[in-house]
Automatic annotation (TrEMBL):
Source organism superkingdom: Bacteria
Main location: membrane
Keywords from the named record: Cell membrane, Membrane, Transmembrane, Transmembrane helix
Entry's localization field: Cell membrane
Record-given protein name: Flippase
Length: 420
């Protein structure tokens, strides 16, 4: 009991809980408006919104640029030393990427001749990316001080949901819905900036152009990993859309959500551990290794048990969640659960070990190669075996990444042992 009380009182546990709450508000709360908004806007206008948001999300990855990890790592290691300079560099870098993204989005929209509704919707939804540019989760995560920023984000999400129900009433309110969706990001960014100034005395100042470029260069490998992840995450659905009827695509997309939700719940655990493990690696390589090993055994074990139960109860779960018609293909959840477990394992091998120890390049190399292999597997197995091939490709591709990361870590450990 004393050990449990001690664990509950640690900054790591409390930070993890606040990140978990933040993840719930970021993923679950927006779903509250979905049944309402699809009916009010109608299929046509909701389709315009979805397509516009999909475009904007690609540019959001550019502006985020991996600073959620690199920024948090630097804050956790450096503490208050040079914090204002780091704060200015990351915000300046994001503003530079923001300008490039806005120009790129509109040029691409012009070249592809998007409709007027989609063009206007994309520009309104670009408010999301402006909010992301000033989003400071990386700062509070590095400080392991997530309580207030979580509350700010939660309140912002709730305000957005309330606004949707209050003001979006007809199909003509497409642009109004785009604004209601975006305002939560602006609101949380403004409050986050105010909080960082009050707590840490940080002010928004632009740094020199060269410093912003250096910060972008420093986050390059993580950015490539995140960008590649965004690109190939939907390749399975794309392949199925070519080789299978729409009903099969729908079944795969629905069943895929079960293991994907498990990964979403793991995300705050990963974010909470990262700055803590980064500090351990800064103290010594051996301390970092031991911390990663202890956390991985416990957490991967728990998710593996959860995955086993999902496989065991797959027919029941799928029937309850989506309907009896979906159970015909319930077996595809087996490779998808394996993919989920391997994905969490690879987070420890890649993010928690290689990136936290300062070896972003090695992680990016392995991840990028794995992404290419996964895309090729999806295409070849998808065309050969349909939905079963696509679901298997996800697990095989992730297993390949696991092997590559293990080899990278073994090589790194050998180098560290030679130094001693």
């Amino acid at each position: 009991m004393d050990k449990i009380k001690k664990m509950l009182g640690t900054k790591l546990f409390q930070n993890g809980m606040w990140l978990f709450i933040l993840q719930i508000f970021n993923t679950v709360v927006p779903l509250l408006t979905l049944p309402y908004i699809t009916r009010v806007l109608g299929t046509s206008n909701y389709g315009v919104f979805s397509l516009s948001l999909n475009w904007v999300t690609y540019f959001q990855v550019i502006v985020e640029y991996g600073f959620g990890f690199t920024g948090a790592r630097k804050v956790s290691i450096e503490g208050d030393n040079n914090l204002q300079n780091l704060y200015s560099r990351i915000i300046s870098a994001r503003l530079l990427l923001l300008a490039v993204s806005y120009l790129g989005m509109n040029v691409l929209a012009y070249v592809t001749h998007v409709g007027v509704q989609q063009f206007v919707s994309m520009n309104i939804l670009f408010l999301v990316i402006i909010g992301v540019a000033f989003q400071l989760t990386w700062l509070f995560q590095g400080k392991q001080d997530m309580k207030l920023i979580t509350i700010i984000n939660a309140v912002s999400r709730l305000i957005s949901v309330i606004l949707v129900f209050l003001v979006v009433k007809t199909e003509a309110h497409l642009y109004l819905y785009c604004f209601c969706y975006s305002v939560t990001f602006i609101f949380s960014a403004v409050l986050g900036l105010a909080l960082s100034r009050k707590k840490y005395g940080l002010k928004v100042r632009l740094c020199k152009f060269k410093e912003a470029i250096d910060e972008i260069k420093d986050g390059w490998y993580l950015f490539i990993s995140q960008a590649m992840s965004k690109i190939f995450s939907s390749v399975g659905v794309t392949v199925l859309g070519t080789v299978a009827v729409s009903s099969i695509v729908g079944i795969y997309s629905a069943i895929y959500k079960i293991p994907y939700i498990m990964i979403l719940f793991f995300s705050p655990v990963s974010q909470a551990l990262y700055p803590h493990i980064s500090v351990k690696f800064s103290e010594s390589f051996q301390k970092g290794c031991q911390t990663v090993k202890q956390a991985a055994i416990c957490i991967v074990g728990l998710f593996a048990i959860g995955g086993f139960l999902i496989i065991l109860l797959r027919d029941f779960l799928i029937s309850i969640a989506f309907g009896a018609a979906y159970t015909e293909y319930s077996n595809i959840i087996i490779p998808l659960v394996i993919w989920m477990i391997l994905s969490i394992t690879n987070n420890f091998l890649g993010i928690q070990f290689l990136v936290a120890s300062g070896h972003q390049k090695e992680y990016s190399q392995a991840f990028s190669l794995s992404a290419v292999v996964t895309v090729l597997l999806n295409v070849t197995l998808g065309f050969a075996f349909g939905v079963y091939g696509v679901s298997s490709a996800a697990a095989i591709g992730e297993a390949g990444l696991t092997l590559m990361l293990i080899l990278k870590i073994k090589k790194l450990k050998t180098k560290e042992e030679e130094k001693i």
